[in-house]
Amino acid sequence: MRVKLTVQKFNPDIDLKPHPQDYFVETSRGMTLLSALLKIKAETDGTLTFRASCRAAICGSCLMQVNGSQKLACKVAIKEELEHHGKIEVGPMANMPVIKDMVVRMDPFWEKIRAVTPYLLEDGGKPVPTEALKDIHKKLDNADACIMCMACLSACTSYEVSPGFLGPAALAKAYRFQADPRDQGHVDRLEKLQGPNGIWDCVRCNFCVQVCPKDVQPMEQIIRLRRRSIGAGFTDSVEAKHITEFTKVVAAEGRLNEALLPVLMTLGNIRKMIRIIPLGIKMFLHGKTPFPFKRVPGRQEIRAIFKKWEKPK
Predict the structure, then answer these.
(1) d(CA 146, CA 90)
(2) Using one digit for the tens of pLDDT, what is the confidence trace for 29-38?
(3) Distance of CA 184 to the CA centre of its chain
(4) What does the pLDDT look like over 20-62, one tens digit per residue?
(5) Phi-psi label, residue 49: left if phi above 0, alpha if psi -120 to 50, beta otherwise
(6) Strands 89-91 and 2-9
(7) SS3 letters for the chain?
(8) Of the candidates 97, 77, 81, which has an alpha carbon nearest to the alpha carbon of residue 154?
(9) Lower Cβ count inside 10 Å, N or C end of the chain?
(10) In angstroms, rounded to a whole number, what is the distance separating the alpha carbons of residues 50 and 98?
(11) Which residues of 20-46 are buried (b: 16+ CB within 10 A; e: fewer)?
(12) What is the biggest distance separating any 2 CA atoms in the chain, rounded to whole angstroms?
């Protein structure tokens, strides 16, 4: 079958901007996109530039955008992609500076990985009991399966508007060491993730989960980091307060009281409390302030759920 591939070409030495170029290639049964690109490079255009290595979805080198989504070219079957989209358009990863054609700079990604200290921190070589390592694979929640292909960072909407954001892969790596009983720097690691560009900057768009070829589910790892942060007492940020006070309101009233929540979040800060008064007036005028003495049906059952899962102090 003769197939058309539209590839984004860009050579900064001769091109002012990227431009699409069509290639036609004879495909065989089960042929992957990577095989097709290698065939084009060998037979049609030797200047076509892309990264590739293992051809088995292990090294993560051949990650590129295929029909607008981040995919490993070695995993994309030409026939299936055509059946699903009716075309094949290939380009470099989004949100990454392009060096040439599909090759992008990777140093911004590695800087983020280095920022989370991606190795075990020991406390004087203190041994960990073997018993603690028995179920370590389960504790890691697949966070150790990352192949550093950058698909999640390329798809990350927070990174798109805020390049300083650590990003899904680095934060998933951070969780990997939180879950490891051999690491002795859990609290210090969490403290470093509380500021700008840390765990609270994820907007939970879920794109990182959708594009990850190894089901690392980076967004879920970030949520686990948030839970651990709150459990470790890092509750001063607005985002952490929103979670803790939200939970308290629902546990007490059996519903979300949208009028009470901002009051609890700003309690003790007179300036912030005065600032939310106009918001309270608007909520009242729009019927968003529930009558305080109205009982919510099923409130006792909801309280029982929270009581069951409440951790003993």
Answers:
(1) 23
(2) 999 999 999 9
(3) 25
(4) 999 999 999 999 999 999 999 999 999 999 999 999 999 999 9
(5) beta
(6) parallel
(7) CEEEEEEEECCCCCCCCCEEEEEEEECCCCCEHHHHHHHHHHHCCCCCCCCCCCCCCCCCCCEEEECCEEEEHHHCEHHHHHHHHCCCEEECCCCCCEEECCEECCHHHHHHHHHCCCCCCCCCCCCCCHHHHCCHHHHCCCHHHCCCCCHHHHHCHHHHHCCCCCCHHHHHHHHHHHCCCCCCCHHHHHHHCCCCCCHHHCCCCCHHHHHCCCCCCHHHHHHHHHHHHHHCCCCCCHHHHHHHHHHHHHHHHCCCCCCHHHHHHHCCCHHHHHHCHHHHHHHHHCCCCCCCCCCCCCHHHHHHHHHHHCCCC
(8) 97
(9) C
(10) 11
(11) eeebebebeeebbbbbbbbbbbeeeee
(12) 78
Residue where the block lists tokens 């948030």: 226
How far is residue 223 from each of residues 49, 81, 90, 240, measured CA to CA in Å?
37, 32, 32, 11
| Residues 6 or more apart in contact with residue 91 via CB below 8 angstroms | 7, 8, 18, 64, 65, 102
Half-sphere exposure of 153 (CA within 13 A, CB side): 30
Q: Residue 153 contacts by C-beta under 8 Å, 6 or more apart in sequence? A: 95, 96, 109, 112, 159, 167, 168, 169, 208
- CA separation for the pair 64, 50 (Å, rounded): 9
| Cα-only R_g, the chain | 25
Shortest CA distance to 8 belongs to which of 87, 77, 76, 66? 66
Instruction: Give CA–CA dist 104/5, Å, rounded.
Output: 20
What's the CA gap between 201 and 157, in Å, rounded?
10
Considering the entire predicted model, what is its pTM?
0.89
